[in-house]
Specification:
The structure holds 2 protein chains of 2 kinds. Chain A is an alpha+beta fold. Chain A has 2 helices and 12 strands; from the N terminus they run ααββββββββββββ. Chain A folds into 2 domains: about 90 residues; about 150 residues, Rod shape-determining protein MreC, domain 1 (Thrombin, subunit H, Beta Barrel). Helices cover about 35% and strands about 30% of the residues of chain A. By secondary structure, chain B is mostly helical. Helices cover about 75% and strands about 0% of the residues of chain B. Classes of the chains: A alpha+beta, B mainly alpha. Chains A and B meet through strand 1 of A and helix 1, helix 5 and helix 6 of B.
Chain lengths: ~270, ~170
């Protein structure tokens, strides 16, 4: 009973605010002690827990580094896909501008092992409708023609090959000539009449003569001319419209078949 | 084993050749990885399948290349003949033999190619072919020969382990 009275009395005193100073002076040392112990505990806890945190941080760091490497790989892949898409869009744009032709797009997957020859290998073959002699182009201009086919791949002779010969026409001069490749990859036009006034910058197109290539495909521009009084014909160097060093994708014109011109033998009747 | 492993090794070498090596040119020349693989293999002591590797390498190259198929076959067989001949004589200095066979082999294969192309009607001037292709190719082959030789030497040691001496 006494205890109850004391308790009620203390509660009433506390509610009335009479115990405030007393409680403050009594609890301050306790709070200080609590703070001191808490600080020391936290310090000791951190000291003991740090190695585990470092390990987890290292693990997390490794995870993040792996993630960064993975993202960087993805970026490279996406950039590669973007470049391929840009090339394909350009080829598609070119194909749309020439609706009379049918095209098959192919990627360049290799080059001829022999340094004497300028051929590339593409990843489409007879299964895709490719045949020997079909012209190969890009959005920039003429690349060459299909030289050999297997079911899934083809070999393309570039116009820079030393054995390549293309009948061309000079756009503004209405003159025809022969475009020849060379060992160095340079292309030259030959068999131009001496009286033709060749100019640097003249556009060179396929003439369609000989039925090896369709007409009016851009080949390049004349960059220099060679004219000697003693020669029968003059020659000129041509800057190809296509950059063969960075050739990645091509279009094959599948609805053009070169005509095999047999030697003209008179028929004896 | 060494006959079977020739197929993937030579196909891999051909793929690297057509994708990478043929693009890394000096003037007009390029290294010939297939030839270097065949030379390096033929120069190993215990190898008995050098001729099979040469013929297979030549056929694979001839299949991919626009060259007549007999050109790489003949070229690589000559290189193998030279390598086997010299390997029996200067076997204690394989690096010297490697350099010698690489130089002579590159000249032979490229000159043979040039002559066959000219006979086929290609208008490649001989001196231009030598200065723009043969000489730069020789230099590039010499640069690549040593690492290829080391790889093939390890492969040969794996396939033909040394017998324990009693």
């Amino acid at each position: 009973m006494l205890v109850l009275f004391v308790a009620v009395g203390l509660i009433l005193l506390a509610l009335g605010g009479y115990l405030g100073p007393f409680l403050t002076s009594a609890f301050d040392p306790l709070v200080s002690a609590q703070r001191w112990i808490s600080t020391r505990y936290t310090t000791i806890y951190e000291f003991l827990a740090v190695p585990r945190d470092v390990a987890s941080l290292r693990q997390r760091n490794a995870e993040l580094e792996n993630e960064i490497a993975s993202l960087q790989t993805q970026i490279v892949e996406l950039q590669q896909q973007l470049r391929e898409s840009q090339i394909l869009y350009a080829l598609l744009d070119f194909a749309r501008k020439r609706p009379e032709n049918e095209y098959v797009a192919a990627s360049v997957i290799g080059r001829d092992p022999s340094p004497f020859l300028h051929y590339v290998i593409i990843d489409h073959g007879s299964d895709d409708g490719l045949r020997h002699g079909m012209p190969v182009v890009t959005q920039q201009g003429l690349v060459g023609r299909v030289d050999a086919v297997t079911a899934g791949a083809s070999r393309v002779q570039l116009i820079t090959d030393p054995g390549s010969r293309v009948n061309v026409a000079l756009q503004s001069l209405q003159t025809e000539a022969l475009l020849a490749g060379s060992l160095t990859g340079d292309i030259n036009i030959e068999m131009i009449q001496q009286d033709v006034d060749l100019k640097v910058g003249e556009l060179v197109l396929t003439s369609g003569l000989g039925a090896d290539y369709p007409g009016d495909i851009v080949v390049g521009q004349i960059v220099s001319t060679r004219k000697r009084e003693t020669d029968l014909f003059q020659t000129a160097s041509v800057q190809s419209a296509v950059d063969f060093a960075t050739l990645r994708a091509v279009l094959i014109i599948t609805n053009f078949r070169p005509v095999e011109i047999e030697p003209l033998v008179p028929i004896n009747e | 084993m060494s006959r079977i492993i020739a197929v993937p090794i030579l196909i891999l070498a051909l793929m690297i050749q057509t994708i990478v090596v043929s693009s890394l040119t000096l003037l007009g020349g390029a290294a010939d990885l297939i030839m270097l693989v065949i030379v390096s293999w033929a120069l190993q002591d215990r190898v008995e399948t050098a001729w099979e590797w040469a013929i297979l390498g030549g056929l694979l190259t001839g299949f991919v290349s626009a060259l007549p198929i007999y050109v790489p076959v003949l070229g690589y067989m000559f290189v193998t003949l030279l390598a086997r001949w010299i390997q029996k004589r200067v076997w204690q200095t394989p690096i010297l033999a490697l350099l010698f066979v690489t130089v002579i082999g590159t000249f032979f294969v490229n000159i043979l190619t040039l002559v066959i192309l000219q006979l086929g009607g290609s208008l490649i001037p001989f001196d231009e072919g030598v200065s723009l292709v043969v000489l730069p190719s020789t230099l590039l082959n010499l640069m690549v020969a040593f690492p290829v030789y080391l790889l093939l030497r390890d492969l040969a040691r794996w396939i033909y382990p040394a017998e324990d001496e009693v």
